[in-house]
Structure formats: structure tokens, C-alpha cells
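step=encode ok
step=design start
structure_in=
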């Protein structure tokens, strides 16, 4: 009887630890944002380029005016990731709240995207991640990264299994959309670790 109680206590203890670990391994969300105006973007580029969304206020001519080395693209097209840190074991989730298709692509170094129409005015050359291509229909070839890291409007894409380290993510269509992510061990059971800069309270 005593042995059974000990076994039960150990089992309950392990279950609590596993449950806490599962809660700690959460999701950190990167917001993919743009403000494309559907009417003007769809006329300039093609039907379906920009779908209706809450912030679609910037016309295509206004967007195009920012395509130069000085402005380096309209900064309403961006990745918004707050503190830029995730804990090892957490999921990095890219959520597209804009009206255009974007990619959330891990790159070795920031650079140009895969579209010469946007690279040219910005003075950029494509990153190596644009090199691989896939034929999605007869005669229709797209960068493979569009398939493996693309995020349609209103959808999400998860990045999992990141080891501790520093990572760069970029949109391969709008190459000024960039973010850096640091993966480490910043949280313990869902609570922030104490920073070395925080004062310690004596008890």
C-alpha cells in the first residue's frame, strides 16, 4: 500500500512538471502588416494582389513613391515583433494581418527579395534563398521559398524547432520587411527570468 502511494505521488509530480513545461512552451506571434489599398493595387498589379482588410488606405502610387534607396520602401509594410525574443521550445508564429501575400523566410543575411521590380528601385540584389525554384504549373515557375514560407492574408505560418541563437527573417517580396529573432532561455515555467540589470530585493 505504501509503495502504491509513493508511486502515485511520483506520477502526480511528473504530470505536474510536464503540464508546466507544456504551458511554458507557448507561441510568440510576429504580426505581418501592410496597408495596401485593394482598388489601386489590383488595377496596377493584377486582380487579387490585395484583398480587403481593415488598414487598406495606402494607394499604389503612394506605395511606389517610397521605392527608392532613401525611403527604402513604405514602412507600413513591416514585421512587428516587439521584443524580438522567444524561449527555446516556443513556436514562432507569423500572422498576416495585411491584404497582400508575404513570405516569412529565414535568411542567412538580409538583402534583396526575389522580384526585380522591387529590388531595382531599392538598389538590391536577391538573397540566395531566392535561387531555388519550383514549377507549380506548366510554364509557371516560382521561388520555392514562396511555397515553404509564404503567408496568405488572414493566415499564419509556424516556425518550430529553433535552437538557441540569432535568426534573421525577411519577406522575399518586400525586402525591407525584416526582423531579427533571438532564441534563448528567457523564461522559466512561463515567467520571465530575472535580468542582470534588475535590482535584487533582500528578504
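sequence_out=
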Amino acid at each position: 500500500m505504501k509503495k502504491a502511494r509513493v508511486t502515485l505521488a511520483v506520477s502526480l509530480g511528473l504530470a505536474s512538471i510536464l503540464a508546466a513545461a507544456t504551458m511554458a512552451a507557448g507561441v510568440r506571434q510576429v504580426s505581418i502588416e501592410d496597408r495596401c489599398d485593394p482598388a489601386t493595387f489590383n488595377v496596377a498589379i493584377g486582380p487579387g494582389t490585395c484583398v480587403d482588410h481593415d488598414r487598406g488606405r495606402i494607394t499604389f502610387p503612394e506605395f511606389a513613391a517610397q521605392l527608392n534607396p532613401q525611403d527604402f520602401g513604405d514602412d507600413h509594410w513591416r514585421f512587428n515583433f516587439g521584443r524580438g525574443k522567444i524561449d527555446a521550445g516556443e513556436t514562432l508564429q507569423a500572422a498576416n494581418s495585411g491584404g497582400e501575400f508575404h513570405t516569412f523566410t529565414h535568411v542567412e543575411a538580409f538583402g534583396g527579395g526575389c522580384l526585380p521590380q522591387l529590388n531595382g528601385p531599392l538598389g538590391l540584389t536577391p538573397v540566395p534563398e531566392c535561387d531555388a525554384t519550383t514549377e507549380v504549373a506548366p510554364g509557371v515557375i516560382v521561388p520555392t521559398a514562396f511555397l515553404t514560407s509564404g503567408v496568405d492574408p488572414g493566415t499564419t505560418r509556424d516556425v518550430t524547432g529553433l535552437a538557441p541563437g540569432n535568426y534573421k527573417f525577411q519577406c522575399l517580396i518586400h525586402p525591407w520587411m525584416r526582423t531579427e529573432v533571438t532564441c534563448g532561455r528567457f523564461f522559466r515555467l512561463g515567467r520571465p527570468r530575472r535580468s542582470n540589470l534588475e535590482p535584487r530585493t533582500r528578504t
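step=design ok
step=annotate ok -> The CA atoms of residues 9 and 15 lie 10 Å apart.
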